Each structure stands twice: as structure tokens, then as C-alpha cells.
Amino acid sequence: MFTEYIRAALRHARYEALEDGSYMATVEGLRGVIAVGDTIEACREDLIEVIEGWVALGLRLGHSIPPIDGHTIDVSKEPMAVVE
């Protein structure tokens, strides 16, 4: 589920060449997700890490993660039972 979500997000990535020759990427619908890199590939690698961190923080804070192309990340808010 997580890998498919990131792949879907990457399909919606928008890359922009900056004046200094580096690149910036954003993903529409994922507010605050911004990655940079000296090359497109470096920017894409940074974008993957940024999306992973964005999702992890969002889940930790109890935020809903927006679906992308039907891919969702849902976590139960019910406490897990402790098995001894």
C-alpha cells in the first residue's frame, strides 16, 4: 500500500528547473511537499524521502492522507490489543 501510494504521487510530481541549475519538485494535493536536487534524479530521490516523511508525520499527528489515483494510506485509530 505504501509503495503504490508513493508511485502514484511520483506520477503527479511537477519538476521545475531553478535559476541556479538545480531542480525543485512538488506534488499537487500534498501540501508542503517540496524536494530539491542538483539533478532531476537527485530531486526525485529527495522527493521520495520527503513524501515518506510527510506521510509518517501526518499519520503521527492524526491527519488524513489524501488519496492519489485511488491509492490510500489508512491507519486504524483504535488501540492495538496487547498479546502476551
Structure description:
This protein is an alpha+beta fold. It has one domain: Double Stranded RNA Binding Domain (2-Layer Sandwich), CATH 3.30.160.250. 37% of the residues lie in helices and 17% in strands. The chain contains two helices and three strands. Strands 1-2-3 form a three-stranded antiparallel beta sheet. A hairpin with a 6-residue loop joins strand 2 and strand 3. The chain is elongated. The relative contact order is 0.19.
Keywords:
single chain; 84 residues; alpha+beta; Double Stranded RNA Binding Domain; 3-stranded antiparallel sheet; 17% strand
Q: Please list the strands of the largest sheet in the order they lie side by side.
A: 1-2-3
Q: What is the N-to-C succession of helices and strands? A: HEEEH
The pLDDT mean sits at 92
Largest pleated sheet = 3 strands, antiparallel
Question: What is Rg?
Answer: 15 Å
Q: Which architecture does the CATH hierarchy give at level 2?
A: 2-Layer Sandwich
Strand content: 15-25%
Distance from N terminus to C terminus (CA atoms, Å) equals: 28 Å
Low-confidence spans? none
Helical element count? Answer: 2
Q: CATH top level?
A: Alpha Beta
Strands, total number: 3
In short:
The longest helix has 21 residues, at 40-60.
Topology, element by element:
Elements: H1 2-11, E1 13-17, E2 23-27, E3 34-37, H2 40-60
